[in-house]
Amino acid sequence: MVMSVLLAIPTFAQKANTDSIQAQLDKIEITNQGMKQAIENYKKGVIKGEPESMNLLGMECLSGQYVKKNVEMGLTLLEDAANLNYSEAQYNLANYLYLAWFSKPNNDALFSQGIRWFKKAVKNGDTRSIVMMARFYNDYGKYKKEPSYINGGIQILESYPKVADVNNKDEQVLNAQAWLGNLCLGKWRYDNDTTALLNAKKWYRTLLKSNLHFPNYVPYIDSLQTVLSMGVPMRIDPEPTEQEIENSKQQPTGGRGGFPGGGFPGGGMPGMGGGAPGAPGAPGPQGPVGPQATFLGGNMQQFVRSNTYYPENLQSQKMTGRVTVSFSVEADGSVTNPVITSEADIHIMNKEALRTVMIMPDWIPAEQDGKPVKAQHTANIAFGNPGFGR
């Protein structure tokens, strides 16, 4: 139905005269009298050849919110505006075709036409269409069981402006990062490509380093936890230099054994239960058990204190809590298998503690007999200490 409309119905630009266009527009039945003047203004704009009016009236016909639903008329109006190089109409038309494809996934013409209009919108600077086009490639590739389309979606998203930016509140940039993580994770599940899994970690971690706040990031915390639980070496940061290793080993790392977070409970730097006062991160009475990795930069406590988000509404209510997260540091220095072993009563705190641990830079691995080995660590994150959080 949708493709037959697009291929068979003449656009308004192809109609013989103003009277015939008006006759077609008169068929639009207004169902909300409060919108009558606006709809009439759209019609006048269509007569004048204004693409914005064509787009707005077309969307009204497709939605059926204020006029009687008329898919044929709506698509004709959108296609007219799209052919006039109006990017908003190109995006809307492509998006409609994407949704129509879901009901008829065997209709390849819907895919090709939708991609065609997304590409035109991208060419006209509509960045939303980059993400939507990548999603269309991904869904079509999964349906066809052809990973080349999924790869195409990844390549499209990697071309998104500022996609590698951190601490960005631009929703479209964050959306692109999220979908890059999703597509890379999907690619790994499809063909077991370890590189795709590493890229999924990279994009989810980039997203979770941003200023995106709870609850918007929760699905990606869960996705990154899934990635880090696959039992695959996950280092994506550059190998530390000899000087960085030496400097890190001279600093108190925190969380290197003994009680959760390292050291005696309480005390230590705000935000981490570690170390007696004046000795943040010092080993607890039991001491480290087995070889211990070293946090790059030396002070895990400072990293946690600077990178954990303490929601303002919890601060204003003076709500506190402590969360313990256990994790592995693999022989390549990557953090894997993060698990909450002691929860706070407040869900936000648990998710935020998990996020903080998962965005840590890769560590300097533990050594045994001169060889890097896997080590177990914990971070004890206390919400509500003075000066804690960002």
| Sequence of strands across the biggest β-sheet | 2-1-5
Output the number of helix runs: 16
Rg over alpha carbons: 28 Å
C-alpha end-to-end distance: 53 Å
Poorly predicted runs are 3-10, 255-288
Counting structural domains, the number is: 3
Q: Can you summarize the main beta sheet?
A: 3 strands, antiparallel
Q: Helical content, roughly?
A: 40-55%
Mean pLDDT: 85
- According to DSSP, the number of beta strands is 5
Strand content: 5-15%
Q: In terms of structural class, how would the helical and strand content be classed?
A: mainly alpha
H/E series, N to C?
HHHHHHHHHHHHHHHEEHEEE
User: What is the molecular shape?
Assistant: elongated
Describe the structure concisely.
With about 400 residues, the protein is mainly alpha-helical. Helices cover about 50% and strands about 10% of the residues.
